[in-house]
Design brief:
676 residues, alpha/beta, Rossmann fold, 2 domains, six-stranded mixed sheet, two-stranded antiparallel sheet, 7% strand
């Protein structure tokens, strides 16, 4: 067994500077969420929280194991009393606000996120939701519970791992460092690119941050003098203990500040960049309460106060900002955001004072009054409350508990209305990198649809034409959301992974008789796309890019294939059904009237793309298909069908029923196959 050696002052009963570090972490996160245009890297506050949590909780576990009195029941009872009170309050308040203010689709998503939050599975749900049509993160009031989920997942397995290390007389530090190294390697190796979302939310790529705190806890209990001696060899100028601790504190706060003010969302995070806040927090905690920064800054009463309410402040601030963004329909003004942050602080204080403190440290019984409930009863009540909220969330997600705004259901239904088949492993082409969505017919006569979601939206009409033709030809869709059919244009995160280059190789096969290509077509001045290492792609490269694209299509035409380019589909803010729901509509249930899209405005907006595509067609021999006459009248593009349903799911994609009824531009393609 490893007996504790109290070789430093790192582990007194209470360290106000750690509460101050909590304040730095939570203020960074709140500032980033409220004012991302000013505090670009405030999201690293979560990483600081992970280190603090790993240090404090591992200290509790290690001390108990050293003393031989560790109890799993006691450990989890303490976690429940610490985590559940404020969590239950925020979940209940979020559901109440959602029932009053959200549309059906929004409320169902909130219900699912409530259930995930109650079960500490938010990170996995968010991983599964990520995709081309995923709701913007600003519109998910319980998004921030992903970090709490990772913490609790860690603490489901960490006490057992340490217990087994002690039981079988293995050095706990070896276990800590081994798991830390594996977790960091997974994080560093998968950050950015196609794995960016999974790396951000997956517990295995985040555990190393908590384990950094766990390693420091073991060092503080057992080897702090040796650790400081090693540091003095690296920092010979810090020859005295006080000088070393001051140096650690200045380095620590500098690293955390560098993360907050130098990083932004364009970085592949966490990855190697997460070392800034993690090492910074590690050094600040290891510096001890008497180091210069810790004593003078972090232990200041204002920072300590914010640190004490940091957990409820973290829970409250994001739902308030998110609900405001939803009901206003745009980013709230700076004044509104400041007021919401102030309200978050007030709610956090009230939660801490009247909910958390009484539950975590109930007053002793007083003569003449009923005795307080036992700790076991408190834990049972808290667990039941969170479970009930989770069940309520599931019922809402399934539609069993509807909201108040049923008159807006027609608008709500539009958002998730998408009729394009999902794919599985069996749909992957055996030779190429893409998946196929085939509609079987004659194997020697294939019609290929190639592009992004602008092509996917036409699937309902194409399927109908395929069935009406008696399945005379095979139809194949090769698409990827957000991926340009111009193979040299790639998403910045590498999400297209060369699929379109493979798609053109497939298009050259002899069975392909006709090729239809559609896309958003405007890839310039957007950080989402890259070309020859340039991101954003400057507009001056447009003619060069589309000239090369024309040469590629000319090769297909020369091989005897019919090639069709779909001109831009009418789109724009007037087509977005979400614009029909403003703050007044959420209170009255009456949708807002939105002027339909004017044809002249749409053509003016798309004139550059139309010019480029006309040139490509002229140079390659491809033919143009124009959806404008099918979608629009002479002067306007209606945003509502005659029965009052929105015709689009968002600002840029038509709904399946409207496509099936109105789009006629593909009809001639299903007449006769190309002669050979």
């Amino acid at each position: 067994m490893y007996a504790p050696r109290m070789t430093s002052n790192l582990l007194p009963d209470y360290r106000p500077d750690i509460d101050g570090l909590r304040a730095v972490a939570v203020l960074s996160v709140v500032a980033f969420h409220a004012f991302p245009e000013w505090v670009h890297g405030g999201f690293v506050g979560v990483d600081v929280f992970f280190v603090i949590s790993g240090f404090l909780i591992s200290t509790i576990i290690l001390r108990s194991l050293d003393a031989g009195d560790f109890s799993f029941a006691d450990f989890y009872a303490r976690r429940i009393k610490r985590i559940f009170p404020a969590l239950a309050l925020v979940l209940a308040a979020s559901l109440a606000l959602g029932w009053s203010l959200l549309l059906k689709d929004e409320l169902r998503q909130l219900g699912g996120h409530t259930a995930a939050g109650a079960a500490f599975l938010s990170n996995f749900v968010l991983m599964r939701e990520s995709g081309y049509f995923d709701t913007a993160v600003e519109l998910k009031p319980l998004l921030h519970l992903w970090s709490l989920a990772i913490e609790e997942q860690f603490y489901l397995i960490w006490p057992l791992a340490l217990f087994l290390a002690y039981r079988y007389r293995r050095n706990p530090l070896t276990v800590i460092l081994l798991v830390l190294a594996v977790s960091f390697a997974l994080n560093a190796g998968r950050a950015g690119g196609r794995h960016a979302v999974q790396t951000f939310y997956h517990p295995l790529t985040r555990f190393w941050e908590l384990l950094a705190g766990g390693a420091l806890a073991w060092i503080a209990l057992h080897r702090h003098e040796a650790f400081d001696a090693a540091l003095r060899r690296l920092l010979p100028e810090a020859d005295r203990q006080s000088a070393l601790q001051d140096t650690k504190s200045f380095l620590g706060i500098g690293l955390v500040a560098a993360g907050v003010f130098l990083l932004d969302r364009s970085r592949a995070f966490p990855g190697w960049w997460a070392l800034l806040p993690v090492l910074g927090a590690f050094l600040l905690i290891s510096a001890g309460p008497h180091a210069a920064v810790n004593r003078r800054l972090l232990a200041h009463p204002v920072f300590v106060f914010v640190g004490l309410i940091s957990y409820p402040l973290y829970l409250w601030h994001w739902p308030l900002l998110s609900f405001a963004r939803i009901v206003i329909g745009e980013t709230p003004s700076a004044g509104v955001r400041i007021a919401l942050v102030a309200l978050s602080v007030l709610l956090a204080f009230l939660t801490y004072r009247f909910v958390e403190k009484p539950i975590r440290a109930p007053r002793p019984a007083v003569a003449g009054h009923d005795a307080p409930r036992s700790p076991a009863a408190i834990v049972a009540v808290l667990t039941a409350a969170v479970a009930i909220l989770g069940i309520a969330g599931l019922l809402i997600q399934q539609g069993s508990l509807g909201g108040r705004l049923k008159t807006l259901d027609a608008i709500s239904d539009a958002k998730d209305d998408w009729d394009y088949p999902r794919v599985s492993a069996k749909d992957r082409h055996p030779q190429y990198s893409f998946h196929l969505r085939p509609l079987p017919g004659r194997s020697d006569d294939t019609l290929l649809f190639l592009g992004d979601s602008n092509v996917e939206q036409f699937y309902p009409r194409v399927r109908k034409l395929h069935e009406d033709s008696g399945r005379a030809a095979t139809v194949v869709f090769v698409t990827a959301g957000g991926c340009s059919p111009i193979p040299e244009i790639e998403q910045t995160d590498g999400g297209c992974a060369g699929q379109m280059k493979d798609a053109f190789a497939y298009a050259a096969e002899t069975s392909i008789r006709k090729v239809v290509i559609g896309a958003t077509w405007d890839y310039f001045d957007q950080t989402k796309y890259t070309y020859a290492g340039s991101s954003p792609i400057p507009r001056r490269l447009a003619d060069t890019i589309y000239r090369d694209f024309a040469a590629r299509l000319k090769g297909l035409v020369a091989a005897g294939k019919e090639v069709y380019l779909v001109l831009p589909v009418p789109k724009g803010p007037p087509m977005d059904p979400q614009r029909m729901v403003d703050l007044q509509a959420r209170f009255t249930g009456i949708p807002r009237y939105v002027e339909p899209l004017r044809v002249a405005d749409f053509v003016a907006q798309q004139q550059e793309a139309i010019r480029l595509l006309n040139r490509v067609a002229a140079e390659s021999g491809a033919k143009l298909l124009d959806p404008l006459p099918d979608v629009c009248d002479a002067d306007v593009c209606p945003n509502l069908a005659p029965d009052g349903r929105p015709v689009s799911k968002d600002a840029g994609h038509l709904r399946p029923f409207y496509v099936a009824e109105r789009i006629r531009m593909f009809d001639a393609l299903f007449s006769q196959p190309v002669s050979r």
